[in-house]
């Protein structure tokens, strides 16, 4: 197990941890949370043996193999699949020894090494590496491409695949979803759920954390606090604890005020002096409680546009793509003020192509795009970060687009994005990815857009900034088109979903949970099509009547399982709706008052029972789905 005991960790003058304690048992999966600068990456370095404690102890089993996601790449000439295979260092050692033994014609050593290679599952390594790459969005051709041919975000995917390829007892992942789209994140969720080792994960994606981890380790006030449950449960538990802390603080403040008034009134009177001195000593002994600070450093809004057009954009018979290669055909859309649309679709289906075309950075291949007279687009994409002037400060960036504004007004606006004082005057060159993303959003928010085109705006943003962005988008009066892997952001800021798939743009009538299932089915269909095309030439022809009879028989065999799965899904939706009502009631601060103690106890009991019911139904539904998929596979193979 990981055992941290009375640990003090310091980096330069900054003390990150002080007398901190933590225990993680083998096989546990935990999310590591904390503000920027709290020391999350330093804790990872400590676990990897790259740092030593300043006091206390940090121990883990000596034989544990540790894998982590690297942040740099040192060999741009390697092929992608070879780079991923390099993550299995023991495999590479055996392969080198085999090559040497073959050169020396050492048959006895060859036999031993081949046996070791088989025991290490080395014969399937290449296939497993390609499966990892496919899950993270790489095509077969990209597996054979040089690492140097990929952009920075795709190189980070390669580092993630390399970490997953490495056999490990402890897996440390720092922001693994930053450069992934939604379908790759869903694939990674499934992979991590089945990972047998201990997982410690830094992430600002609340849905991802909820899906993968069962504990949260919170770094706060130089301490490590372990919470049971995913991020949503952590948020509820911590809010309740902070509410109680705030109540205790206010009660203590009232008590202190009363004692101070007594002391001030009676300490000069001989008959009351002794009592006054007694209260003074009690006041000095009283442990100072801190108020519960929940204030985010971010507070901003998108400035309201001066004018509107209706429609803002009107695209007819659009053909979208690059050069002469069409990706989307016959695209028809119209964006009116107030439209709030989330764009879904598999990796490579054309989501970014759609956003770039509407933003005007990618020309139409065919069709007609009409823009409103007062259209003002605020466009955010990852290349926006690269277009920032590295030598200019946030203040100078903003002054360039608002030369007539007073400096103090610009500073006040930047303060909402946590660029305060001298930080607003420092060059962007050494800013983190999160700071650059915040600045890019600030420049967009200042320019009074009436249409926001946002392509993965939450990459590099922490929880507090994501929350501030969510609030700002909820209050935004214009239209918005959003591509994001952050399901919470899509869920909280959009009221319509579009789907990009199979070369078409369509309205998606279901919700995000249904989209997850749709995506799994889409992948299966693509795999079946690929397998079917390979087998088509060798498979015997079957007449149409036989096909219809076989299809009817298959439907009849599948019907009971499908009916059972559908029934469980409805029960699960009902249980989740009940849980949502309970959580809404628990979000009301009044329920934590003394007068509502009985109701709070009842709600917490119902919450625990409801969560148990949801867990049971989810397990039953997954089993039903697995049985259904297994039968479908058997029928398709027969």
TrEMBL record:
Q: Which intervals of the chain form a coiled coil? A: 551-634
Matching InterPro entries: AAA+_ATPase (IPR003593), ABC_tran_C (IPR032524), ABC_tran_Xtn (IPR032781), ABC_transporter-like_ATP-bd (IPR003439), ABC_transporter-like_CS (IPR017871), ABCF (IPR050611), P-loop_NTPase (IPR027417)
Q: Which UniProt keywords apply?
A: ATP-binding, Coiled coil, Nucleotide-binding, Repeat
- Repeat as UniProt keyword: yes
Classification via SMART domains = AAA
Identify the residues that the record assigns to the ABC transporter domain, covering every copy. Answer: 2-246, 313-527
Which SUPFAM superfamilies does the entry mention? P-loop containing nucleoside triphosphate hydrolases
The highest taxon in the source lineage is: Bacteria
Q: Which GO terms describe its molecular function?
A: ATP binding; ATP hydrolysis activity; DNA binding
Family, according to the entry, reads as follows: Belongs to the ABC transporter superfamily. ABCF family. YheS subfamily.
What is this protein's name?
Probable ATP-binding protein YheS
């Amino acid at each position: 197990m990981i055992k941290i005991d009375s640990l003090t960790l310091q980096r330069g003058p900054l003390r990150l941890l002080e007398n901190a304690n933590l225990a993680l048992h083998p096989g546990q999966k935990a999310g590591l949370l904390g503000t920027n600068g709290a020391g999350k990456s330093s804790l990872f370095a400590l676990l990897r043996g790259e740092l030593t404690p300043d006091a206390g102890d940090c121990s883990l089993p000596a034989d544990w193999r540790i894998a982590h996601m690297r942040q740099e790449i040192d060999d741009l000439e390697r092929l992608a699949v070879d780079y991923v295979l390099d993550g299995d260092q023991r495999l590479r050692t055996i392969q080198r020894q085999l090559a040497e033994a073959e050169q020396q014609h050492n048959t006895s050593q060859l036999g031993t090494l081949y046996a070791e290679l088989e025991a290490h599952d080395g014969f399937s390594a290449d296939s497993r590496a390609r499966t990892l790459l496919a899950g993270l969005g790489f095509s077969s051709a990209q597996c054979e491409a040089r690492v140097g041919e990929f952009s920075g975000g795709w190189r980070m995917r390669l580092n993630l695949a390399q970490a997953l390829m490495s056999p490990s007892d402890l897996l440390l992942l720092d922001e693994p979803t930053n450069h992934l789209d939604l379908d790759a994140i869903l694939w990674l969720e499934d992979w991590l759920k089945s990972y047998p080792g201990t997982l410690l994960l830094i992430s600002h994606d609340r849905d991802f954390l909820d899906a993968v981890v069962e504990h949260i380790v919170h770094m706060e006030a130089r301490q490590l606090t372990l919470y049971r449950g995913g991020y949503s449960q952590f948020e509820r538990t911590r809010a309740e604890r902070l509410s109680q802390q705030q109540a205790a603080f206010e009660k203590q403040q009232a008590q202190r005020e009363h004692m101070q008034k007594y002391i001030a009134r009676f300490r000069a009177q001989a008959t009351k002096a002794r009592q006054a001195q007694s209260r003074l000593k009690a006041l000095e002994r009283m442990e100072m409680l801190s108020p519960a600070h929940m204030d985010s450093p971010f507070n901003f809004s998108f400035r309201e546009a001066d004018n509107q057009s209706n429609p803002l954009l009107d695209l007819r018979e659009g053909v979208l793509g690059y050069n002469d290669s069409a990706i989307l055909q016959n695209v028809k859309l119209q964006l009116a003020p107030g439209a709030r649309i989330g764009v879904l679709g598999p990796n490579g289906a054309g989501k970014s192509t759609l956003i770039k075309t509407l933003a005007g950075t990618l020309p139409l291949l065919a069709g007609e795009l009409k823009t409103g007279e007062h259209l003002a687009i605020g466009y955010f994409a990852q290349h926006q970060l690269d277009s920032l002037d590295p030598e200019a400060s946030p203040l100078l960036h903003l002054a360039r687009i608002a030369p007539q504004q007073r400096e103090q007004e610009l500073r006040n606006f930047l303060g909402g994005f946590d660029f305060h004082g001298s930080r607003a005057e420092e060059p962007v060159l050494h800013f983190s990815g999160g700071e650059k993303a915040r600045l890019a959003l600030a420049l967009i928010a200042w320019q009074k857009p009436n249409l926001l085109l946002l392509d993965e705006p939450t990459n590099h943003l922490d929880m507090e900034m994501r929350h501030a962005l969510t609030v700002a988008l909820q209050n935004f009066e214009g239209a918005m088109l959003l591509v994001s892997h952050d399901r919470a952001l899509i869920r909280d800021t959009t009221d319509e979903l579009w789907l990009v798939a199979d070369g078409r743009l369509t309205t998606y009538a279901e919700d995000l949970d249904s989209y997850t299932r749709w995506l799994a089915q889409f992948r299966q269909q693509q795999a079946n099509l690929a397998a079917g095309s390979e087998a088509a030439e060798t498979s015997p022809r079957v007449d149409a009547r036989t096909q219809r009879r076989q299809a009817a028989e298959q439907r009849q065999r599948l019907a009971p399982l499908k009916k059972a799965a559908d029934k469980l899904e409805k029960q699960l939706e009902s249980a989740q709706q009940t849980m949502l009502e309970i959580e809404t009631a628990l979000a009301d601060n009044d329920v934590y008052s003394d007068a509502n103690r009985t109701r709070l106890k009842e709600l917490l009991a119902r919450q625990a029972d409801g969560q148990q019911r949801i867990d049971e139904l989810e397990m039953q539904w997954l089993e039903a789905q697995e049985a259904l998929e297994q039968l479908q596979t058997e029928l398709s193979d027969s």
